[in-house]
Amino acid sequence: AQSVTQLDSHVSVSEGTPVLLRCNYSSSYSPSLFWYVQHPNKGLQLLLKYTSAATLVKGINGFEAEFKKSETSFHLTKPSAHMSDAAEYFCVVSDLNSGTYKYIFGTGTRLKVLA
Amino acid sequence: EAQVTQNPRYLITVTGKKLTVTCSQNMNHEYMSWYRQDPGLGLRQIYYSMNVEVTDKGDVPEGYKVSRKEKRNFPLILESPSPNQTSLYFCASRSQGLAIYEQYFGPGTRLTVT
């Protein structure tokens, strides 16, 4: 069965410093992986997705993630944090090849950006 | 504008009073789904539908019903709400096409059951 683990429930960074949000997945088949962001009192917005093309995926707002099959990881990074990045981030695995079409969400990482 | 809409956005109700949360999408998507979001648990799938008249249980279906009579609509029904169904609910939709995996989410419905 597929699953996803977000290794940190809270991350704090100073404005202008790098961001690293960690995600490990488990999947029996070739996975599709996503990062979504949820700003306070808002819905979910797609940041980026990996669907077996390039392993380094670029998303919106300067975020990127690298798919590492050997490490079963899909960590989210950004070179320089901005105050507007403060939000909750969800890593998601979708195992379409198994025929279930289900999204499995991580428990979320709340990013705090300090001035 | 392509979007998923949900109504109401906020709802306070009492135990046992039936309610329906509506969900509609204008992208002609085959797949639709309902999730609930609880602190520390992420989003968990309640029910999903792969097309009209085709629905199936997700991970936490107890206490919920759904129907899919039209492609664009996927209402969530709580026939006898209980306080443990107090949560933030999201509807989502996606094309079934293999090249497109992204789900589009509605703005959420915050439900409080007293």
Task: Tag the structure with descriptive keywords.
heterodimer; A: 115 residues; mainly beta; six-stranded mixed β-sheet; four-stranded antiparallel β-sheet; 12 strands; 0% helix; 53% strand; B: 114 residues; seven-stranded mixed β-sheet; 50% strand; globular
Mean pLDDT of chain B: 93
Give me the oligomer status.
Answer: heterodimer
The tally of strands of chain A reads 12
Low-confidence stretches of chain B: none
Mean pLDDT of chain A: 90
Order of helices and strands of chain B: EEEEEEEEEEE
Helix/strand order of chain A, N-terminal first? EEEEEEEEEEEE
How many strands, which pairing sense, and closed or not: the largest β-sheet of chain A?
6 strands, mixed
Q: Any idea what the radius of gyration of chain A is?
A: 14 Å
Binned, the helix content of chain B reads under 10%
Strand content of chain B: over 45%
Biggest interface and its residues per chain? A-B, 21 and 24 residues
Strand content of chain A: over 45%
N-C termini distance of chain B: 36 Å
Overall shape of chain B: globular
Structure description:
The complex is a heterodimer of chains A (115) and B (114). By secondary structure, chain A is mostly beta strands. Chain A is built from no helices and twelve strands. In chain A, strands 2, 5, 6, 10, 11 and 12 form a six-stranded mixed β-sheet that branches. The mean pLDDT of chain A is 90. In chain B, strands 2, 4, 5, 6, 9, 10 and 11 form a seven-stranded mixed β-sheet that branches. The mean pLDDT of chain B is 93. Helix content of chain B is 0%, strand content 50%. Chain B is built from no helices and eleven strands. Chain A binds chain B through residues 9, 32, 34, 36, 42-46, 49, 51, 90, 94, 96, 101-103, 105-108, and chain B through 31, 33, 35, 40-45, 48, 50, 58, 90, 92, 94, 96, 98, 101-103, 105-108.
